Amino acid sequence: MSYVTKSPWVIHYDGSSCNGCDIEVLACLTPMYDVERFGIINTGNPKHADVFLVTGSVNEQNKEVVKQIYSQMPEPKVVVAIGICANNGGVFKECYNILGGVDTVIPVDVYVPGCAARPEAIIDGVVKGLGVLQEKRNAMNGNTAAPAIDAEPAEKEEA
Ligand code: SF4
């Protein structure tokens, strides 16, 4: 974590989840899992956020909200899709109103599997996202000499 040069702020949006993944995201913010030890703070303002945590799948009603939150976040930014619904629609994939996962409307950097996603997996996904964030920051600054990040390429879970 030595490559984190500032406290990354996250914003959480529940697309159309059953709230299972949202409870786990909230658990990460409690003293039990304590993501604040990484300097991570939850904000309600996309203009202050570096990392976009999305739970649930994308549908006709929320697609514009997801796009708007994403567009209001400053560059560089990272999107973490949490849970199989956010990955690809999950159990709701075939429903008439479901368009699919978060990547149907915005680019996703990290896919966190699970139904519900476990707090440990969410924290792992966010930390990977911080690596991607630093890579993007380096690219924006034209800095290729910065520490290498061990973030792996995003892999998508199949339902
Ligand atoms: S992945 Fe499972 S727990 Fe998470 S929102 Fe979808 S159905 Fe709920």
UniProtKB/TrEMBL annotation:
Its cofactor is [4Fe-4S] cluster. Coiled coil: none annotated. Residues 18-128 form the NADH:ubiquinone oxidoreductase-like 20kDa subunit domain. Keywords: 4Fe-4S, Iron, Iron-sulfur, Metal-binding. GO terms for molecular function: 4 iron, 4 sulfur cluster binding; metal ion binding. PANTHER family: FORMATE HYDROGENLYASE SUBUNIT 7-RELATED, HYDROGENASE-4 COMPONENT I. Belongs to the complex I 20 kDa subunit family. This is NADH-quinone oxidoreductase subunit B family protein. It comes from Hominibacterium faecale.
